Amino acid sequence: DLYRKVFVFRKDPSDAYVLLRAKLEQPLQNFTVCLRSYTDLTRPHSLFSYATKAQDNEILLFKPKPSEYRLYVGGKFVTFRVPEGHGDWEHVCASWESATGIAEFWLNGKPWPRKGLQRGYMVGAEAAILLGQEQDAFGGGFDVYNSFSGELTDVYLWDAGLSPDKMRAAYQSLRLPPAVLAWKNLSYEVKGDVVVKPRLRE
Question: Which CATH class is domain 5-198?
């Protein structure tokens, strides 16, 4: 249980990452991924990387620059343009549904205009799920200049699209539905220079 704790990725650039273990029985037709990050990086960095043997960017939450987030599904991506942060925690949720190909992006509890991505696609179940690096091969192929440096917390993955109420609940750290990956019950392995510390502030 990592409640009120964070992963601190101490080095920049870094070869460190956290490997997450999820119990996924079948391919995903819908998903929601949420997390909170705190960084002063201005270079590109990966926040959440979900790779299969067939597709290294099966699900990827990536920040190419301070004013942009990218959501990849099955190797294709959409871009969400955001105001540059003010050196504060940023909470992001991204969800996608295969049937409509609709991608939703929420930043700090507010929805951005929805975009279309990979309608009819299926996200593979046999995945390597990493925080802090972007996979260019299954479980590896890192570029340190895409690595994350800073603090990450409140990481969740659901095999469903969350309702707007639940998206806001995730931002406010309220009660959430059972998840494939849940911060309060996380199976993980630290690889390299990552330290678990209490969260300093809200």
Answer: mainly beta
Residue 1 has pLDDT above 90, yes or no: no
Kindly list the domain boundaries of the chain, sorted by start residue.
5-198
Which tens digits make up the pLDDT trace of 30-50? 999 999 999 999 999 999 999
pLDDT digits (tens, 9 = 90+) for 99-143: 999 999 999 999 999 999 999 999 999 999 999 999 999 999 999
Q: Containing H/E element for 170?
A: helix 164-171
Q: In Å, what is the CA distance from 200 to each residue of 1, 183, 196?
A: 17, 17, 12
Amino acid at 47: L
Let me know: does 130 contact 143? Beta carbons within 8 Å: no
CB 117 within 8 A of CB 79: no
- Which pair of tokens denotes residue 121? 């696609």
